[in-house]
Design goal:
With 243 residues, the chain is α+β, with helices and mostly antiparallel strands. The protein folds into two domains: 2-38, no CATH class; 42-238, no CATH class. The chain is built from five helices and twelve strands. The structure holds calcium ion (2 copies).
Length: 243
Amino acid sequence: MRLKRSRVIAVPLAAVALTLTVAGYQAGAAELSHRSDRATGASAPCLADATTLIGDLDGDTYPDKITNPGHTGTAMTVQWGAKNGSFGKKVQVKDLLGAKKGEVATAAVADFENDGTLGMVVNIVEPADGDDPNTARVAEYRPGPLDRTNLGSADARHSDIGDRGEAKQLAIAHYNDDAYPDLAILNNGGDGQMDRDVRLSKPGGGLADFDYEAFQKYGEAGSLAEPPAMPADGWKQFYKPCS
Ligand SMILES: [Ca+2]
Ligand SMILES: [Ca+2]
């Protein structure tokens, strides 16, 4: 049915299309994607303050409150939003993620796909005693919406941020020049090395794996004694103040 119908329409449309300029076509495409954003019903994420992001994390269209004290990703909390605009009690992200005693959980939240839905990168690792870092028990990129009970994602995939050392901090960054958030990782690479690693957004969203060129350009080598600085303005680069 649908196919037949679109074929009938296709003929006059094709004639019109000939007269359309490339610019006109792009404007139409932008309008379409804007419309699909609105169709999700959620408003765009915004910043209540430098370390507090208001946006829908679980896909129920009600904005949730995410705090990230110190911009480190190690003490993140979530308060689920309700229909009347209020927020529930503060829940530690590490508890939602199921981090065990002795494990360190880090998280970074942003709209990595730039589709109006917040997602999360998570890393859970038990820090090693000696010089050799442990690899992560869980390291995943989790596009939203996320499950309220455990921050799970139907589209979760392994991230290599936990494969090359112990992630100590995660932070949103704006490195390559596009609309998609990037990630900075404070990484204990072993032998006293503490680097700022980076994962750049891919064209169309999501995060690429480790890339040496990207590290050379945006990362920084350091030591346990002198760790490199981490970005603290990642959210600010992508989200406006709420009011
Ligand atoms: Ca919500
Ligand atoms: Ca980017």
